[in-house]
Amino acid sequence: MNHHARGPQLPPARGPLSDAVAAHLRGTGPLPRPADAESADPYGDDLHLALYLCYELHYRGFAGVDAGHEWDPELLGVRAALERRFLSALRADTPGHDSLDDALGALLVEPVDGTGVSHFLRDEGELWQLREYAAQRSLYHLKEADPHAWVLPRLWGRAKAAMAAVEYDEFGGGRAERVHARLFANLMDDLGLDTSYGRYLDAACAELLAVVNLMSLFGLHRELRGALVGHFAEVEITSSPGSRRLAEAMRRTGAGPAAEFFYDEHVEADAVHEQVVRHEVIAGLLEEEPELAGDVAFGIDATEYLEGRLARRLLSEWRAGRTSLRVPLDAEMTHTS
């Protein structure tokens, strides 16, 4: 048995699907039936924690969990059922643009009176809300760019070269201290958060898990390579203005120099990446495979849809003076210390 000792602990279950998957990983119980996924809420806590547990086996895994589970045929069958439920709901529910040009054009327009999370945090967010935001986003940012690296073997020519260039920047340009995941850990230090990988999985809401799971879903399936490129385009095109607002929020609240630097770095880097992704990655991909234009548009639109759901969750809780987390930070720290 090849047990991984350095990964995060398996989190508490959020329902029968995640309970059964976790039990299987511990070796204490059977997997759920693939058919059990058919009636699950496609955006709910139980399905998305179960799916996150499956996907995390392809990254760092979990403490005490046999690394061989990564390619467990029965577990992959359950994962496929969870993915079908999630993806079919996304295809049905995501408002789609008429064309890829329309989808890209919408991303390039900054609203005059923005009402998103970064606008809220810049204008009126308090330090406790910035800490919650960082804790939630840490589930991605502590492995920033890893899900997108899966697409590299599925591209060639201009698209591959340009995607590799952007990823090289994300991974620090060859310098460990500049890896974006390391810079985010420094931000978390400034905010007094635990920088351990996967530390806030139990606290993160279902809407956040869905956003992170989308990246793995697109990245791990060759047939969804166009959607992954679309997702990446949405992230890079919207990152620079959003990061500018978040950097201002960090400065206004006195979060700390590393917290400011993480977003300042993304303002500059992602302004360049946006151009590369549009003019080289997408253009190069469609030059070779023009039939993937619809998939690229779907990747953009699905990402926007899930980010919108997350934004509504965060803002509704914060405006009511409530935590956006399933477990408040102070209670979460006490529970696991």
Please give the number of β-strands: 2
Strand content: under 5%
- Range of helix content: 55-70%
Give the quaternary arrangement of the chains: single chain
Care to give the gist of this entry?
The protein is an all-alpha fold. Helices cover 63% and strands 1% of the residues.
Write the topology of this structure.
Elements: E1 3-4, H1 16-26, H2 45-56, E2 65-66, H3 73-93, H4 100-107, H5 117-123, H6 127-141, H7 146-149, H8 157-170, H9 180-190, H10 206-219, H11 225-253, H12 257-288, H13 293-319, H14 329-336
Antiparallel strand pairs: 1-2
Helix pairs in contact: 1-2, 2-3, 2-10, 4-13, 5-11, 6-9, 8-12, 9-12, 10-13, 11-12, 11-13
Main attributes?
disordered C terminus, two-stranded antiparallel ribbon, mainly alpha, 2 strands
Written account of the structure:
The protein has 337 residues and is an all-alpha fold. The chain is 63% helix and 1% strand. It contains 14 helices and two strands. It has helices at residues 16-26, 45-56, 73-93, 100-107, 117-123, 127-141, 146-149, 157-170, 180-190, 206-219, 225-253, 257-288, 293-319, 329-336, and strands spanning 3-4, 65-66. A two-stranded antiparallel ribbon has the order 1-2. Helix 6 packs antiparallel against helix 9 (180-190). The longest helix has 32 residues, at 257-288. The protein is globular, with a radius of gyration of 19 Å. It starts with a strand and ends with a helix. The relative contact order is 0.14.
